[in-house]
Amino acid sequence: xxxxxxxxxxxxxxxxxxxxxxxxxxxxxxxxxxxxxxxxxxxxxxxxxxxxxxxxxxxxxxxxxxxxxxxxxxxxxxxxxxxxxxxxxxxxxxxxxxxxxxxxxxxxxxxxxxxxxxxxxxxxxxxxxxxxxxxxxxxxxxxxxxxxxxxxxxxxxxxxxxxxxxxxxxxxxxxxxxxxxxxxxxxxxxxxxxxxxxxxxxxxxxxxxxxxxxxxxxxxxxxxxxxxxxxxxxxxxxxxxxxxxxxxxxxxxxxxxxxxxxxxxxxxxxxxxxxxxxxxxxxxxxxxxxxxxxxxxxxxxxxxxxxxxxxxxxxxxxxxxx
Amino acid sequence: xxxxxxxxxxxxxxxxxxxxxxxxxxxxxxxxxxxxxxxxxxxxxxxxxxxxxxxxxxxxxxxxxxxxxxxxxxxxxxxxxxxxxxxxxxxxxxxxxxxxxxxxxxxxxxxxxxxxxxxxxxxxxxxxxxxxxxxxxxxxxxxxxxxxxxxxxxxxxxxxxxxxxxxxxxxxxxxxxxxxxxxxxxxxxxxxxxxxxxxxxxxxxxxxxxxxxxxxxxxxxxxxxxxxxxxxxxxxxxxxxxxxxxxxxxxxxxxxxxxxxxxxxxxxxxxxxxxxxxxxxxxxxxxxxxxxxxxxxxxxxxxxxxxxxxxxxxxxxxxxxxxxxxxxxxxx
Lengths: 322, 332
What we know:
The structure holds two protein chains of two kinds. Chain A is α/β, with parallel strands linked by helices.
């Protein structure tokens, strides 16, 4: 076990994968200087400018060119800086990358990791703060991952690079400095959720940084005599329905919490799946997400869009009628 | 492979390929309109065959080609099997994409043809990336990307060509200019001095060629391909031609000025022009007629064989989506 931060963990995974496989390369803006958050620090010095490629501010070309290079046999890691900017490359991701294998009858593969840092990052306003993970889950052909801990950002990055499908890899930009113990021998299967805390009274399903807040909420609830189970999905496509269903069957109560706008969010998919499976619930479901509004610059306005630890605690108690 | 088209053998090969492309598309249109076997839209390249025939003479199997929704000719000339292509147009098993792509997504990776594309201009960045990948892998193939004049007004034209220029990639971009963006005259919606000037502004060597002259296309593209194989940087070719049909086989093209199409076809049909070249070289009319008949007979048989092929099995609807989280395993 080694103590490292969330950003160091994925950097180490990339560094190890590039060492092991010469066809793995990184492409994006300012990578030679580490990119916006230091995700690539030192990699260009180690692997050279042909494998850690600094590009023009040209998202469509970064995404499209990486796809072309993937089709001829390389394994690109694509950096979009902020998930918001990746919208400039939507045709390339949705119409091209996600569809090529199917449309060409299985002739092509697009083994790519597409990194799109998501989430609230103090006073970054409406174009640098979004969490659009549910969009990508809606696109057949894509794998969607949302790591929330240093361990997962190491192990899931390794799994994503090894995957032959295009992987939308959504790191949360408010937790780059989050520290944790990392076991570099630990492999994570894509699609397996993580039970972050065991409990009997209520199931809290979450992902990305809100999963960390949910663990905090569970600690608070424990102090009030409520035993909450926290499931960090980690992967939204495919997602671990079984772990969620098993947990809800045990607790009979469900809270879903995420940072993205609640309306049409992936939380709705989780709740619908539980409902379809006919799990008998002992209390009302609570779904927490942002209001269907935009992220403002002023801190007090920005905070109106947050799902907080207190909100998760309150929601869990409501499912218990408290 | 010939370096230029300027001898009888090569000139004849150009005509044979153009006749085959035209016969393939004429039979595809018959399959759509007469037989109701092609259910979706097809975008014929009738009148534009010189570019496909002239350029592909210089490409090896391992070289990479990307094309547009109007890509039957390019694909056939790159070496794809016309029966697999016709099956694809009919949505049948044994189609080059298993019947899942159809005309607009025709592709044959086995001959280096990485796909036609239903989104105008989208292949420009992808092709640049294929060339980038080739460079990373240390391979010596080249990439050719063919797109239409409409693509020059989309963002990927700027982003993809700039990318190839910045990274000095082994790629030839070809604007096969049929003068229409779907049903709108391209010149009426395009600013500035033209596509070649745009490419030059991004640092590419740009050449303009008569895209109805197969000999000229073969000559010029041969020179460009030789420079690319010699380590030269990316280049641009503007081949001006004319689309004899409407945008799709359903489109009569009534928006064109009266007489325009008739005049263009009479003066500039690339097949007629190549026949004249061969007659001037001393080939007999009977030889030309035989080339025409053989192409027609080949594609008539191709259509009959394709029509006799079954549709894909229903389970193919959920195959080849993705390995992890595949609809074959996941209920939703």
